[in-house]
Amino acid sequence: MISHKEISNKELVKEVYKLINENSHLNAFITLNEDSSLKKAENFDNNPSDSSLAGIPIAQKDLFCTKNLRTTCGSKILDNFIPPYSATVIDNLEKAGCISIGKTNMDEFAMGSSNETSYFGNVHNPWGENLVPGGSSGGSASAIAAGIVPAASGTDTGGSIRQPASLCGITGLKPTYGRVSRWGMIAFASSLDQAGPMARTAEDCALLLNEMCSHDIKDTTSLDENIPNFEDALNQSLKGKKIGVVKDLDLASLDNNVVEVYENSLKEFVSLGAELVDISLPNLSLSVPTYYVVAPAECSSNLSRFDGVKFGRRSQNPKDLEELYIQTRSEGFGDEVKRRILIGSYVLSAGYYDAYYKKAQQVRRLIKKDFDEAFSDVDVIMTPTTRGAAFEMGSKGSDPIQMYLEDLFTISANLAGLPAMSLPNGNIDNKPIGLQIIGNFLDESSILNFAHMYQTKTNWHMLTPEGVIK
Amino acid sequence: MDKKTVTTISYLSRLKIDEEKEEKITNDLENIIKFVDQLNDIDTSDIEPLTNPLEKTAKTRDDIVTADNLKKELLEIAPSSNEDYFLVPRVVE
Residue A186 belongs to a domain with what CATH number? Predict the structure, then answer.
């Protein structure tokens, strides 16, 4: 529409802010970037650009540092933090012409699967009153599902892109660990964290991923590997390609509707020419307990930097330095973040390190080995993304493990460092649900190919909640 | 997991747990540790721990200055600072 001059860049950005206001009940945004965004849009109107994403309004998860724009990570401890620099991902997207219209709400420090842990209040899912959008990238998912923005950035440590994508009926990709620079991302669990695109379609995810990826010397885990054009493989035929179907999945524990939706998708892929191959991931069920040792351990170390000394919120009137640390952290962190820091300190403490942390890392290798073996036979692996559709706020009760199991199917890809996507593949009681496609190391192209071909045959990704303009 | 352990790890984490939440958090931690204990049923003898999915040694780069000096900007966003330093309560009497 922009290139045909049906709408100016500025009109488009104005429309986005109008939609944000009309949808303020969703609580999808923490901070808006209106003046600067309107200025940028006006610039594009005056000096048309041929950058690939020129003028595209995009929402940025509030976990990425954005220069001169408040970055809270969903936490009280950072509610006044204005970074003096931007994350590499933000720089890359803005260089490509994206307009960062605001920062999206999220679970505090990305620790949560329902957006109920944000200091800035729950995000609502546009598919129904009181439904959670998933988490932790719930604000990004909700904003896309509500038609406010066409795309957003997200991050995924155990499913934080894919699970909200599933619950909000959008498409989201967690790339291979190391594909996208982590510089300027507020760290949760450094060996698992990865940023990725969220959008309505796989094709849009490919366009975004093209710009998000770069080899970044500022991140020592950033991969110096060839970055393909992710659009190239989108339309390849699936004829003869192999889909791994995990026979160890405990489908009996899932809602019948979820199983039916999943099996229908597999049939759709067969009709597109793909072949189903039974594979075994015998250690898959260990991924959640493994994650809940590794992630808290890394989190307790990473979050030690929030001490009230150099940036962020500081507690008032501490009597000495130690009280300054303790009060600042106790007042600044929410319950879930505290719980994970405590677990991390426990599994890393003397006497428990071998029994928990080392053990979990050994099991992590077993999980990765299972995938290595499976991928010698197949191109991608498919599972449901989530155990069910969006649930009601507060319905998981006060038992944290019930919430942790939300990420049962997604966590293993983070432990193994593999790319994985969720795309809409059905509706249950007028609530969307997603299919997960896991790819081999560095093979985002195959995932995008399978997803795009599926989206040329189905229209689940085009369904929107009532009242949303397509 | 008992109250004493929770007190110890809270101190290691520089966190103070509110008294009225102490019982709930002790129970939560107990349940989470019980949940991850299932890993102990797995035979991992001779399995090398996997600390990072890339298993690559971090690359070094040439020792040249690449970043701007953000001293002023960084001190400005600190809760308390003077022209040269971050300020904290007195440490040495």
Answer: 3.90.1300.10
* Contact between A318 and B9 using a beta-carbon 8 Å cutoff: no
Domain extent, residue B35, equals 1-40
CATH code (residue B18): 1.10.20
Q: A221 touching B, CB under 8 A?
A: yes
Domain assignment present for B78: no
Q: What is the pLDDT of residues A367-401, one digit of tens each?
A: 999 999 999 999 999 999 999 999 999 998 788 88
**Residue A100 a catalytic site member:** no
Class of residue A70 by CB neighbours under 10 A (exposed 0-12, middle 13-18, buried 19+):
middle
Pairing of strands A431-439, A420-428: antiparallel
Q: In which element (H, E) is residue A74 found?
A: none
DSSP annotation string for A103-138: EE--SGGG--SSSTT-TT-PPPPTTSTTB---SSSH
**What is d(CA A107, CA A123) in angstroms, rounded to the nearest whole number?**
9
In the residue annotation, A160 being an active-site residue is answered as yes
User: Between A and B, how many residue pairs show a Cβ–Cβ distance under 8 A?
Assistant: 167
Q: Do A356 and B78 touch (CB under 8 A)?
A: no
Q: What is the pLDDT of residues A341-353, one digit of tens each?
A: 999 999 999 889 9
How many domains does one find in chain A? 1
